[in-house]
Each structure stands twice: as structure tokens, then as C-alpha cells.
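Hi R.,

Here's the chain you asked about this morning:
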Amino acid sequence: MEKVVLGIDIGGTNLKVGRVVGGRIEAEKFKGVQADATMEEVLEDLYTIIDSVINLDVKSIGIGVPAIVDPVSGIVYDVQNIPSWKVVPLKELLEQRYQLEVYINNDANCFALGEKIFGKGSAYTNFVGVSIGTGIGAGIIINNAIYNGVLCGAGEIGMLPYKDGIYEDYASSFYFANTYNQSARELSTKASKGDAIALKAFDEFGLHLGAMLKAVLYMYAPEAIILGGSISKSFPLFKKAMELSLSSFAFEKQIEHLKIEVSNQEGIAILGAASLCY
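And the predicted structure, written out as C-alpha cells:
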């Protein structure tokens, strides 16, 4: 765990790179994603921030990507919010450039793995890490190991049908944007000041999130669900409504044993990606 590695989070809005040793981020850089840029232009942005953080001590690179991923070949497909990244041989490109071993996985899987190694997930053998932000993603830990599924696609619970759309429409930032024409961050600030409309928005969000978590419980029956992502920071605003929604779960004893945690690990996206190297 003391070897020096790079953790890279390729998000929908930012590229983040951190130099990690022993679960600690020594140095980090980020750069906004040019959503309309070519594949090569985004790669150059990525190279630029990697070059600013990497040093001779770095032994390997781990990358989390919001996409389906072939972890063997290191090809990523249809990266969310980067339209030009349809098919990118990212492992090959980075290994050729930096002459280091590169490991790639889905970003939600990295979140769960990071929690298992560095965060609250260390207390559990079987849990699901749910990242709620621009979209919804889940990483599944079974018997202390990540379950990838085919092309690291396991855990895409946000894509399950719900109401007139999918869960992602109701249990991520899309809900606030589509229903209230405001960002989750804006509404969170207003709700913390007692704004009635903002409080209502988070109550509704909590009910929808609870419905989605019930689906997780029926599928995996985990010991715990660990929430992460930007919206999880507003947990007190939707906790009561989420619990109300969960109270209708069919198996009362299962709910009694369930722990719902909120990640408190700063830089978990970078640490999660770095976890691939250990």
C-alpha cells in the first residue's frame, strides 16, 4: 500500500489526477473537460495534467471512467459526456506514453473499491457503493472483491425502468434540473436556509432514491449501502424521505440489518482509481 501510484478520474465535467501513496493524495491536478472536443484534444488535456503530477516514484496508473470498459484490453466505450470518446484504447495509449502498467475500470466500481480499501467499506464483506451526482452508478463488492460483470457493466442501476423513464431521471442531478430547472447545488444551498421549494425538492428526491435503493436490496441484499458523489453531501436534506420510502420494503428483518453510510473520504474518485493498482 506504500507504493506510489497515480489515480485518474475521468468525469463528465472534470479530469482529475492524483499521486497517491498509502491512501494519501500527495499531489493532484484537475482540468475541465471540453465536451465538444475531439478525442485527441481530450487526450492532450489528460496528458497535460498527468505530466504535472507524475514523477519517477510512480509505479503504475489506475483510471476510473464513466463508461463500459474492457479491463483486459483497456478499451473504453461510449464515455458519458465526452461524445468523441466512442472507442478509445486508453490503456495502450497511456502505457506507450508513460511506460507504466495501467489499470482501467468503470468509475462507480472504482468508488466502491476505494471505499473497501480506504473508506467505510472496510467494515463490510458485501456492500454496494452508490454514486449519486451527474448520473447514477453502483459498484458491487461481493466477498471483499469487486464484481465487474461483462465489460465492467454490473451495477448500472440508474438505467432500470422507473415511472416514465429510468431511475437516473429521478435519483440524480437530472431530477433537479428537469423538475426545478436548478442544479442540486443551488437547491441544496437554498434548502439549508429553509427555502420551502428547495426542501420539497429534496423530499421528493429522497423518495425516488429510496425506491431505487429498494431495487438494490432486492437484487443484492447487501450488508450496507455506501452513498457517494456530489449529491450525497446533502444527505441530511433527503435522509428522512429516503428512509420513509425504504420503510415499505417487503422484508423487515433485512432492513433492520442494513447499514446506510455516506462516504466521508475526500478525494475518493482519485483514491478509488488508485485502488486498481493494489
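The radius of gyration is 19 Å.

Let me know if you need anything else.
M.
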